[in-house]
Amino acid sequence: MRSSNRRPGRPCLLTPERADAIERASAVGANTVLAAEAAGVSRATLARWIARGRAAAEAREDGEPADPRDDPYVDLCRRVELARARMATRALARVLQAGAGSLVLEERVRTFTDPVTGLDVEERQVRYLRPDWRAAAWWLARVFPEHYGPNAKSWEQVLDEFDAQEFHEERDRAESTELAGLAERLQLALAQTTPDTPAAELSAPHPSPAA
């Protein structure tokens, strides 16, 4: 008979307070180390939590039965991914605004009474950041690295590679056609040298007359 005085298991370190702290840190772009420190756990522990949540979420998407013990980790994983996605989207929007010159630096609202009409007028003054092409270039280099990244090829290089590829393909097609014609001519030559009369129908040699 098992004893009823069993020691309780180790409590889960993933408390709601820690999950909130990790989400807040992720929302401002903190990496795994800083997010773990904000929650008071090690980086390895946080990495295990996220990995467990991601694996459990993928298993559920594949139709496997859900284990309630994985719920806190699945929830944490989704909250972190959503927070980081929103942060990245906001940062990207600011980069594009900086490139277009639509990033607001200062905004003032002034209210005064029109001396002619006597009505209250609200005047809004907005000061924008000057357009910076480097912000747009940074975005292009990371979203379209094959075209605008440090290893991107010029238009002339792309055309040269295309021409070279077309040349090789055309040469391969020509060689294939030439080989096919050579094989056909070889078959015709072999057919012409093959005797049409079976060996059994060849006339036997006449015996020599007796002396």
Distance between the termini: 124 Å
Helix content: 55-70%
Mind summarizing the main beta sheet?
Answer: 2 strands, antiparallel
Order of helices and strands: HHHHEEHHH
Order of strands, widest sheet? 1-2
Spans of at least 5 consecutive residues with low confidence: 1-7
What's the overall geometry? flat
Averaged pLDDT: 81
Rg estimate, integer Å: 40 Å
Structural class: mainly alpha
How many strand segments? 2
Note the total helix count: 7
Percentage of β-strand residues: 5-15%
Summarize the structure.
The protein has 211 residues and is mostly helical. The chain has 7 helices and 2 strands; from the N terminus they run ααααββααα. It has a two-stranded antiparallel sheet with strand order 1-2.
Explain what this protein looks like in three dimensions.
By secondary structure, this protein is mostly helical. The chain has seven helices and two strands. It has helices spanning 16-27, 32-39, 43-61, 71-100, 133-143, 145-148, 155-193; strands at residues 104-113, 120-128. It has a two-stranded antiparallel sheet. The longest helix has 39 residues, at 155-193. Residues 1-7 have low confidence and may be disordered.
Topology:
Blueprint: H1 16-27, H2 32-39, H3 43-61, H4 71-100, E1 104-113, E2 120-128, H5 133-143, H6 145-148, H7 155-193
Antiparallel strand pairs: 1-2
Helix pairs in contact: 1-2, 1-4, 2-3, 3-4, 4-5
